[in-house]
Design goal:
Blueprint (H helix, E strand, L loop, with lengths): L1 H28 L4 H14 L3 H17 L1 H9 L2 H9 L6 H18 L11 E2 L10 H14 L4 H17 E2 L2 H29 L14 H18 L1
Length: 236
């Protein structure tokens, strides 16, 4: 039974990868430049209130930034990450929004890993003349919000943690931003550590809760947060 389930899981994973690559090939084989697909996707992302349209646009955007350096540079030059942050804020923890949020975070991850390809420097100031031009402080606050809101989701929590770590590692943050991030991460870490300890005590007298792959164990969440705290302490 277990081997059968493992086989089906592997087949499903391979099918997902195959469909993903096929989508990328279809986008490129239509004869339309990727930049045109990018502009169409961004237009939908900025104007459409419908979740299914936004999801399709984000999938197209993910393909564009994944396969094209030119698209990544253009997105950074036109401050597309700020649009993505605004879009992420619109959605909640419902199952309907989970896939969309996952795709949005993937796009943000590709863009944060490509900052060196743009004309901006690797050390990005949080504020210039009192204004958060590149939305760096906004993104740092957003990732911590996502860590709190999706602390039970393995995929969304780990993606948010990676984005938070990259933001901390590539910005030249002012003291206020770092102090606030440190304070919020400490509170969240304390909460997850307390939850993990409570569940450990309960498990000693009652049957232990079995966590699925999609459901994040609080002890693992606490470990991830502890690693983020180490990063903050190093740069503060």
């Amino acid at each position: 039974m277990w081997r059968c389930r493992q086989t089906w899981t592997q087949l499903a994973f391979q099918l997902t990868l195959a469909l993903r690559e096929e989508s990328a090939e279809n986008v490129q084989d239509e004869g339309i430049p990727l930049r045109c697909h990018l502009k169409q996707a961004l237009a939908i992302l900025e104007t459409s209130p419908r979740v299914h349209q936004v999801l399709q646009a984000v999938k197209t955007l993910e393909i564009c930034v994944r396969v094209s350096k030119e698209c990544r540079v253009e997105c950074l030059a036109h401050r597309v990450p700020r649009l993505l942050y605004k879009t992420i804020r619109k959605y909640n923890r419902s199952r309907r929004h989970s896939e969309l949020l996952h795709q949005l975070l993937q796009v943000c991850l590709y863009l944060t890993s490509s900052r060196g390809e743009a004309t901006t420097t690797m050390s990005t100031p949080v504020a210039a003349d009192g204004q958060d031009v590149d939305g760096v402080a906004e993104s740092l606050e957003l990732w911590i919000d996502m860590l709190h809101m999706h602390r039970e989701s393995t995929d969304l929590f780990t993606l948010s943690a990676r984005l938070c770590k990259r933001t901390l590692a590539t910005l030249n943050a002012n003291k206020w931003s770092i102090d606030k991030a440190l304070w919020r991460l400490r509170l969240l870490h304390a909460m997850m550590a307390k939850t993990a300890k409570t569940q450990w005590i309960v498990a000693r007298v009652a049957p232990m809760t079995h966590y699925t792959k999609d459901h994040l164990h609080p002890q693992k969440a606490a470990s991830i947060l502890h690693a983020l705290l180490d990063v903050v302490c190093m740069i503060s």
